[in-house]
Amino acid sequence: MRQSKLFTKTKKEAPTDEISKNAELLIRAGFIHKEMAGVYSYLPLGLRVLNKIENIIREEMNMVGGIEMRTAVFQSKEVWEKSNRWDDDIVDAWFKTKLKNGGEVGLSFTNEEAYSNILKQYVSSYKDLPIYPYDFKNIFRNEVRSKSGIMRGREFYWKALYSFSRNEEEHNEFYEKMKVAYQNIFKRSGIGHLTYMTFASGGSFSKYSHEFQTVISVGEDTIYLDEDSGIAINKEVYNDETIKGLGLIKEKLVEKRAVEVGNIFSLGTRFSEPFDLKYKDEKSQENLVIMGSYGIGLGRLMGTVVEALADDKGIIWPESIAPFKVHLLLLGDDEDVKKEADHVYETLTKNNIEVLFDDRVGLSPGEKFADADLLGIPYRFVVSSRSMKDNGVEVKKRNEEKGKVVSLEELLVLLKHSA
Amino acid sequence: MRQSKLFTKTKKEAPTDEISKNAELLIRAGFIHKEMAGVYSYLPLGLRVLNKIENIIREEMNMVGGIEMRTAVFQSKEVWEKSNRWDDDIVDAWFKTKLKNGGEVGLSFTNEEAYSNILKQYVSSYKDLPIYPYDFKNIFRNEVRSKSGIMRGREFYWKALYSFSRNEEEHNEFYEKMKVAYQNIFKRSGIGHLTYMTFASGGSFSKYSHEFQTVISVGEDTIYLDEDSGIAINKEVYNDETIKGLGLIKEKLVEKRAVEVGNIFSLGTRFSEPFDLKYKDEKSQENLVIMGSYGIGLGRLMGTVVEALADDKGIIWPESIAPFKVHLLLLGDDEDVKKEADHVYETLTKNNIEVLFDDRVGLSPGEKFADADLLGIPYRFVVSSRSMKDNGVEVKKRNEEKGKVVSLEELLVLLKHSA
């Protein structure tokens, strides 16, 4: 894409009320627009990142047998009363709104009820199970404070998968698969090395739930990490019993600030019971379905990547979720240089390499370099009179200090072999 | 996909309060789930159709220079007060909800304000224009009645593009391109032959807006159609002046019921003025940006296709938006037949043909045929002991009466050359 056709521009400053690093950088670089505290629109560059994260998650969910659908945002009182979660005194995260012809509806803050209610129509026999449906959708939570940029939204884009299994054994087998799938997602998104499976409070149906916590200084959670095994314990269940139960040694655990980028937990029959979600087994006996819940906030993941990897010049995107792979900069207004830059752009595009081509006129090299650093695209290619003298393109990775001049042919090989 | 892995099942009946044909068929076939009047969840088959429609629209929008982004659902009072559309007495379609820490937010019912407000930050010079941003998102409208299934939702999935042009001439040029893009969308979605560009009421800035009206008996609009030219007039502007102005002859116009599947209109400076959206031209003079609006409801389009093309046995999907291209039916429980059906399934899948494979056991041929008719997938392939005797697969198109036995090799060629 030609940058001259991209309507967003970089800014020197973010809104004064924006105190989070992720939103500050993303707003300045033109990835998002702040509508109000905790509510952001995704501009073209931001949507590209979000879509890449979505595709990684989709691939991993499909791999374990997930099947995609899309539940509605509007939720009815009748459905949520079954599980006793309609009342604002019980769930205080609700946004509710009034129908013109009477009655109130809620805005999804999670999906257990919607899925249980839908599945109730389709599940009756052991042959109907297991089922692993999921969706991506906007979720709404009435947060009192919302100061963490896209890491804690009042409105946010969320993946939720629910597992419906015949028994504990089948449930546990899938739950283990999801642990791996989640680890794959964070690895593929570029924060695997900072993300730890963390034991957190369970519920009536399992001793622990599992969070995936990414260690960053602005994390809202406190975890205790065993760096050898990569296992962590959330503060909420950090006690001698847990430490011993997990075979860890207290003295080796390090306290860290971290952000929860995903969580998975066993629901047991918490929802299948109120929704009367049962199946007949081979002996025609009725059993309650065993459920599990597996969530990831895509904005939170995107914000965490920014927080974790950015430097003082701007964002650093991992290749897997970068809006483009290559940021091609044309320097100066010499006609031959312009022609060569056009040629490089077309060649890369023909080779299916995603390029943002900074073809803007009237900007100094310094301005273009600063913009490239702020935007954080992994490979910076520069075409200038100097690079042409050296018969190539100057290549520099965003996280490297120095570039080198390489021929276009070599570049194509290089990109083919990169992640 | 194996139908045994698809958790939805067909039903004999839709909910008793569902009076629209589109929702009745889509619910019975397991494409959607009714949450409440005007609110539907999209089950796996339904989401596949929605995604295909989305991709057709995206391709056409990108072709005319559109750039995708995604605005937030939550809208702030301050922004909408600028255009004087916050007050419920002025816009009665609003859903509003309260923030826990005070204040009210609205749920998007359209996007003019959000886009104007965002673009205001980025547009200052003639070099910044034109811009054609668009998004797909859920839109909410507080409809009093909602009895048309997915054709009129309280919550619905919507594409909106806004054009930002320097002057009337540039605006008109783009507007003409969008007419063609819209016609392409409806053609590609399989209802081009029933869809007519219709002159409807304009506003302060243009005499007419343009609707794309699909002729179906349950349409909520009345249009007057000139069948020779394919031009129609909406009842709201149907008068001697309009007829004469368009060069039509009153006696030749036929009254039809139709549903508006898309609309485009010129906004002039209706929004650029309150948002102070101006640019400096080549002479450093300030001018207001000229805007246009271009919307399509994806659920409405999907519902219209069902209404327009279904027969008394069920849905008939056009190939372009069908959830799968082929519905492969395995009949009987003979091991050789099963083996052959598996082979056909794998061969089609390997050739990148989307197949729903009805591998379910314990269903009669009649039940499988009835389900296939209800689901409406374009090609029905049957593997049975009879088709094997004839050394092939029995093929029938959903809209044909009789099938014929064809070899697998010929089928692959046939599918390659179909739409």
TrEMBL record, chains A, B:
CDD domains: ProRS_anticodon_short. The keyword Ligase applies. It comes from Candidatus Nomurabacteria bacterium CG1_02_31_12. This is Proline--tRNA ligase. Its EC number is 6.1.1.15. Residues 38-318 form the Aminoacyl-transfer RNA synthetases class-II family profile domain. It holds the Pfam family tRNA-synt_2b. It catalyses: tRNA(Pro) + L-proline + ATP = L-prolyl-tRNA(Pro) + AMP + diphosphate. One of its GO terms (molecular function) is proline-tRNA ligase activity. Coiled coil: none annotated. It comes from the Bacteria. SUPFAM superfamilies: Class II aaRS ABD-related, Class II aaRS and biotin synthetases. One of its GO terms (biological process) is prolyl-tRNA aminoacylation. PROSITE patterns: AA_TRNA_LIGASE_II. One of its GO terms (cellular component) is cytoplasm. Keywords: Aminoacyl-tRNA synthetase, ATP-binding, Ligase, Nucleotide-binding, Protein biosynthesis.
